[in-house]
Structures are given as C-alpha cells and as structure tokens.
Design goal:
This protein is α+β, with helices and mostly antiparallel strands. The chain has helices at about 1-10, 70-80, 100-110, 120-125; strands at about 25-30, 35-40, 45, 125, 140, 145-150, 155-160, 165-170, 175-180. Strands 4-9-5-6-7-8 form a six-stranded antiparallel β-sheet. Strands 2-1-3 form a three-stranded mixed β-sheet, with no helix packed on it.
C-alpha cells in the first residue's frame, strides 16, 4: 500500500526526487502517513484533495495554473464589448449589429465560424438542454427568429431590435426555444 501511495504521489508531481546523495528522511503525506523515501529530504507533500504543502525555505512556491478561457467565454467577452452598439437590421459589426450578426461576429473573434442567420444558428452546432446551458451557448428565441449568447447567471447578450442597442438581459425576458453549443 505504501508503494502505491508513494508511486501515486510521484506520478501526480506531488513529490520530486532529487539527485542528492541517498539518505532516508521521513515524508509525511497528510491523511495517509509518514514514509521514508531515499533521496528526499524530510517534508510534507501535497496530494490533490488534501491540505496544501508548506512553503520550504529557499524553494519558490509553484505558480498557479493559468485559467482556461473557453471559446464560448471569448465570444461572450467580445459580445459584451459591444454592449451599447446600435441595432441595425442586417448589420454584422463591428460598429452595428442585428441579433445574428452580433452572435456571428462575437464567435468570429473567438475563432469559430457560425452561420449568418438566426434560423441557421438555431439549426447548427450541438443541441443543449436549458438545464445544461454554459457560458457561450447560442440561445434561440421566438421560434428561431432571434438569437443571443448565454452570458451566465440567467442572462443573454443580444441585439434586440431597432432603437434598442446591444444589451445584456434576463434570458427569461423572451420566449426561449432552444440552445446550441459550438
């Protein structure tokens, strides 16, 4: 059992073995026990799901991994940057938009090509149930005649109609009939 725990810790990168002279010092794995590992100085190691490893003098703490930004999040960020832009029927940016033009333009900024019309956007991609919406899903309203981008927290970013600029609105403010993931 000890070998399995230690091998797992080595595989997970929780322990590194130096090329120092061979000597056995106890290594404590919280919640598991203390083990002698030749070549590893006495320390407490971190295993995912257990308390953090203490900072050792002279050894810099590992950098936190960079957050992963999805294409959907990039599309939401692009659409959010256009909040306040005017609605113009048939416009697809970068200064004015209709609903599907905003969705297409935002996803283009994220490196994804989408169909131009709201009806085509409602038919392409992968169908997503309302209960499984994720940031960046394309949401269809009014039988497919209107589209927007799910921004999380029950909100959608969309170019609503003439006289109303691009805005963030509650998803429940319009009759939703489907969502697609690209």
């Amino acid at each position: 059992m000890r070998r399995v725990v230690i091998a797992s810790a080595l595989a997970l990168g929780a322990v590194t073995v130096s090329a120092a002279p061979a000597f056995a010092e106890p290594v404590t794995v919280p919640g598991v026990g203390t083990f002698d590992i030749p070549g590893v100085p006495a320390q407490t190691v971190q295993i995912p799901g257990l308390p953090a490893m203490p900072v050792l003098p002279g050894i810099p703490a590992p950098a936190a991994p960079a957050p992963v930004v999805t294409a959907g999040q990039k599309a939401v960020d692009a659409a959010a940057s256009k909040i306040g832009s005017p609605y113009v029927w048939g416009a697809s940016g970068p200064d004015a938009f209709d609903c599907s033009g905003l969705v297409q333009w935002a996803f283009k900024q994220a490196g994804i090509a989408l169909p131009r019309t709201s009806y085509d956007q409602a038919a392409a991609g992968i169908a997503v149930p309302t209960s499984a919406l994720q940031v960046g899903d394309v949401v269809s309203f009014y039988g497919g005649s209107h589209s927007g981008i799910y921004a999380g927290n029950g909100e959608v970013i969309h170019a609503a109609t003439s006289g109303t600029p691009v805005k963030r609105a509650p998803i429940a403010s319009m009759p939703m009939d489907g969502a697609r993931r690209y």
